[in-house]
Amino acid sequence: ESCRLANVNLQLVAVAFVSALPVACCLAVGKPWCAFVCIGATVVPRLMWRQGDSTQNLLFVVALGFYWNLVFLTSFASPILVLMGCWFSPRCFLPLVLLYTLWARAISRPDLRSGQAWRWFAESEWGYHAFRRFLRLRLHVPAALRERPREHLVLFAVHPHGVASDFRVLMDGMLYAAFPNREVLTLAASVLFQLPLVRELALWTRCIDASKAVALRAFKKGHSVMVLPGGTM
Predict the structure, then answer these.
(1) Does the global pTM surpass 0.70?
(2) 20 closest CA partner among 93, 90, 101
C-alpha cells in the first residue's frame, strides 16, 4: 500500500475542495449556519480518525462511512447544487459558472491529452487513505510485469466496473509505487468531465477521455492505459 501522510496545508486544500460548492449554495439561499455545518461535516471525520491511528474501532468506520458518502453525494449532485446557486443568487453564480464552463470545456482540456495527475491527492487524501486502510487494499504485481521495460507499453483491463468504480480511484494512488517508471492513464466516460468536482477528481487520479482517438494518442506518447469495461454506455 502506498499512503503518504499529508501535511495540514494540503488537508485544508482537500477540505476546501469538498465543501466549497455546498457552502456557496448555503450562502446563496441565505442559510449561513448551513455553510458552517457543511465545513464541519468535512472536518469532523478527519478529527475522529487521523492517519496512522488504529482502524479496529467503530469510530473509524463511522468517520469513513460518513465522509465517503458525503463526498460521493456532493460530487454527483454538483449539477443540482450549481442550478440551486444560479436560481437563488444569479449575479454571483452565473458569471462563475460561465467562467468554469469556458475553462473546462474550451480552454483547458487535459482529458483529451495526458490528464492532470495530482500525485499527493491520489496517494494521501484523507478519504482515499482511510478507505484503503479499511479495505486492506493491496496490489499483487507479477515480477515480470513490474520489470517490464517502460517502452513496452501495457494495457491494463480491470473487471467489473461496478457502480462508480471507487476501487479504481483508490488504486491509482498505489500505482505510483507499484510502477514507479510507468505512467498509467485510465480511460473514463466523457460525461465525467462535464460534471463539476467529478471532473477534477477524475483528472487528479489520471483519467482521460475514453474515446479511441485519445487512447491512441496516449499510447503514442508512451503511456500505458487502463480500461474498466462496463459502467455507462
Answers:
(1) yes
(2) 93
Burial of 154-171, coded b for 16+ CB within 10 Å and e otherwise, reads eebebeebeeebebbbbb
Interacting residues of 17 by C-beta distance below 8 A, sequence separation 6+: 197, 200
Name the 3-class secondary structure at 36.
helix
Orientation angle between helical segments 78-88 and 90-102, nearest 10 degrees: 140
- The residues pairing with 155 across neighbouring beta strands, listed in sequence order, are 225
Q: What is the per-residue pLDDT across 152-189, written as a single tens digit (0 to 9) for each?
A: 999 999 887 777 788 899 999 999 999 999 999 999 99
CA dihedral 6, 9, 15, 17 (to 10 degrees): -110
C-alpha cell at 147: 520489470
Which amino acid appears at position 77 of this protein? A
How many other CB atoms are found less than 10 A from the CB of residue 122? 22
CA distances from 200 to 14, 195, 212 (A): 12, 9, 22
